[in-house]
Amino acid sequence: MTIDLSASFKAYDVRGIVGESITEDTVRATGAAFVDVLDLAGRTVLVGGDMRPSSPAFVDAFAEGATRRGADVVKIGLISTDELYFACGTLDAAGVTFTASHNPAQYNGMKMSQAGAVPVSSETGLYEIRDLAQRYLDDGAVPAAAAAGTVSERDVLADYAAYLRGLVDLSGTRPMKVVVDAGNGMAGLTTPAVLGGAVLEPLPLEIVPLYFELDGTFPNHPANPLEPENLRDLQAAVREHGADLGIAFDGDADRCFVVDEQGGTVSPSAVTALVAEREIDRARAEGVESPVIIHNLITSRAVPELVTARGGRPVRTRVGHSFIKAVMAEEGAVFGGEHSAHYYFKDFFNADTGMLAAMHLLAALGEQDRPLSELMHQYDPYAASGEINSEVADKDAAVRRVAEAFADPGVAVEDLDGTTFTSAGEGWWFNLRPSNTEPFLRLNVEAEDAATMERVRDRVLGIVRA
């Protein structure tokens, strides 16, 4: 039976279970459709992958499909997702990387980019690629172009590392000890290249490695630092080694999470605020009057407040990297941040890179003497619940029950990416957002103090889970 590609093609990327919803045949057809839909015959297509066991075979299959339709494939080897964006940006070529990010070992997928690191999403060709690939699968063959393309290889790691170092200079920072948990993902390759001395001159950083061995079976813990249990080894190592901070990356190393010198977690919103201030200062020094900072609607209210106070202009958008990248380009924004620890930079082709965000944090910490916990206090003034998932059969009905319970003239309601309820008088807001792919309602609550946050959180959860 032919596989239905709608099972693996999502709004922003492709993800599926290897051998079931994503196979070498589906990948080969997708490679061909990628070339056809984006009109890439006779042009270069970059193809790389992460450390998952299935990635090398998928790279080869995609290359077969792409070259059969006339594209010249350049295999760029083992890469993090932000390495793909770097390569697409600097080489001005479309590309794909095989990864399923933080998903378990049985998964793999594709993240696609046009030349210049412009994302390929459901709104910019991904579903057209899906539909054409489905036709090739149903027909049982990919038609041959008049002239087949070529295959070559190129390593982009050293250039990627040098590019990032050119954006944030860490050579003069005070000596610091940093524990990095790569989770057996691609940060095990990129961290020594960028922050260590593997390909460039060493920096005044002592890197304590955790799980740097590339292993797509994830033998130590899932490569998803968003889950608190996956940070425990990092927190323990920071305390054991007396480190200045700890950094954890997800499987494809495009997101970074931070813990302070005491092992306490640093919220992505606080990191967003810190990096935003640095990017605002840099842009204003270059003559930009009111630099734009993008943040999604679940980011702490501290972010737009601090951006405004620093002389920037905050712009709020929906959750999701394709939305963020589109608004980054439209607004000419210098930086954007999400609650999920995706960080976007104008100087990185409007794309997200966890490594560059980590470098900004290291630079900010290293240019002053306070510990990270004290430095970040100013960026985290509110009490937040973090994202809480509730499995609900009828998500719309649950949201309606919450809306009825919170119907009050003093509570503003906004329907942008879920539903946001705000009580300015009581100093709280919360957002209920249904997952597009799972039977979950995602709740985020923020308030001026912990007691208020907990009261609102527990009331909402009681209604949702009733």
Describe the structure.
By secondary structure, the chain is of the alpha/beta class. The chain folds into four domains: 5-155, Alpha-D-Glucose-1,6-Bisphosphate, subunit A, domain 3 (Alpha-D-Glucose-1,6-Bisphosphate, Chain A, domain 3, 3-Layer(aba) Sandwich), CATH 3.40.120; 158-262, Alpha-D-Glucose-1,6-Bisphosphate, Chain A, domain 3 (3-Layer(aba) Sandwich); 268-377, Alpha-D-Glucose-1,6-Bisphosphate, Chain A, domain 3 (3-Layer(aba) Sandwich), CATH 3.40.120.10; 383-464, TATA-Binding Protein, CATH 3.30.310.50. The protein has 14 helices and 22 strands. The protein has helices at 24-37, 55-68, 81-90, 126-139, 157-167, 187-194, 232-241, 268-285, 302-309, 321-331, 354-366, 372-377, 395-405, 450-464; strands spanning 14-17, 44-49, 72-78, 94-98, 107-113, 151-153, 176-181, 205-210, 245-249, 256-259, 265-266, 292-296, 313-317, 335-337, 343-345, 351-352, 383-384, 388-391, 412-414, 419-423, 428-434, 440-447. Strands 1-5-4-2-3-6 form a six-stranded mixed beta sheet, with helices on both faces. Strands 17, 18, 19, 20, 21 and 22 form a six-stranded antiparallel beta sheet that branches. It has a five-stranded mixed beta sheet with strand order 8-7-9-10-11, sandwiched between helices. A hairpin with a 4-residue loop joins β19 (412-414) and β20 (419-423). α1 (24-37) crosses α2, α8 runs parallel beside α9 (302-309) and α8 (268-285) crosses α11. The longest helix is centred in the middle third of the chain and has 18 residues, at 268-285. The radius of gyration is 22 Å and the shape is globular. The two termini are 42 Å apart.
